[in-house]
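Per reviewer request, we include the raw input and output of the structure prediction for the construct analysed in the revised manuscript.
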Amino acid sequence: MGDNKQAMQRRRSWLAIVLLGLAVSLTASGCARRVVARVNGQAITQDELNRRLEAQGGQIVLDSLITRALIDQECRKRGVKESPEEVDGLVSYISKQRKEGGSTLEEMLKQRGQTLDDLKDDLRAQIAFSRLFFAAKDEQKFFKEHVRNYDTASRADFLKLVTKTKAEAEAARARILGGEDFATLARQLSIDEMTKTEGGKTGLTDSPPMAGMPDDPAKTWLFQKAKVGDVSEPFASDYPAGWQIVKLVERIPAKVAKYADVRWRVWADVMSTKAAEADALITKLKKKAKLEILRTRYRPLIEEYKKLETPPPTMPGAPPGAPPLTPGP
């Protein structure tokens, strides 16, 4: 529960950063008085939005920017930097992960309010920061020691349509077997709000539960009985409560991991093992920094840094001052 709370706080912090950065850029271009919304005719201006954003998240944002500056300075001091190939490789990995989850890199960037160049800049900082603690050869060693953790179970890509009653599910199945499009009917008939707008698309699912785990009849059918293109008989659905029919789109066989394919997952895992060292370094840099804060409201940060004794909690795999690789929507 505590980890979830910290994750939510981090997401709120980064949303504040994105919005505050937008607000500053608009102000600089003379847009502060631009109307961003009207409520029953009453205007809300960009200037009002800017002030509220700063009041709610200004100190959090400033702390993040200070941390990022300290990281960049330390990397330059030690002559540590990333290669363009590493950045491009990490972008490709993120794009692949989003696609396998039923989304796209472009959608992620839109949710963050980022451009591809913004993302690359964040990743440069993350990779360079990680090189303060381990090299690529350490990642390869870690992979060899934990290789079985990176093997991929068989997976299935499928569509589903959920109805309130079994009779409704049977009727929908009959229409599909009669030639109607599954995705079209899912949009029209499904009560699953999470998937109906995407035509029943769910993203990839792993193979059925192992022995001793709760049974999932739909998964069992997908992996043990179905052929690509088959549409199932109705199965009971727990969420939302009702009856579901599923269509197998693709089955992806299990795969033995190769380092090149999971290199960036290994990198994030190694970084998580260095979290305590990373936090200790950030604390040390904050305490040593010659910090000048000109705005009175933010000067308490100076005293906070002086009082730091133990490393603050951070997200494993991502340095302080840079957003996580896979933020929540």
